[in-house]
Amino acid sequence: MTPSIKRNVTLTNIYDRQIIMIEKIVKTLHEDLQYDYNLVLEELKA
Q1: Which of 23, 17, 14 shows the shortest CA–CA distance to 41?
Q2: How far apart are CA 20 and CA 26, in angstroms?
Q3: Residue 1 has pLDDT above 70, yes or no
Q4: pTM beyond 0.85, yes or no
Q5: Which are the contacts of 34, defined by CB distance < 8 A and separation ≥ 6?
Q6: CA of 31: how far to CAs of 1, 23, 35, 37, 43, in Å?
């Protein structure tokens, strides 16, 4: 049985804040890199 962060509010909040921080950093990159990283971020959000 593997632990799930979805069942832990604290871990979910940390995960969400990290995603937001990554999104802000990605916006500063070259647009080609932004596209690639945004594809990965969309997978992580799902």
Answers
A1: 23
A2: 10
A3: no
A4: no
A5: 26, 27
A6: 40, 13, 6, 10, 19
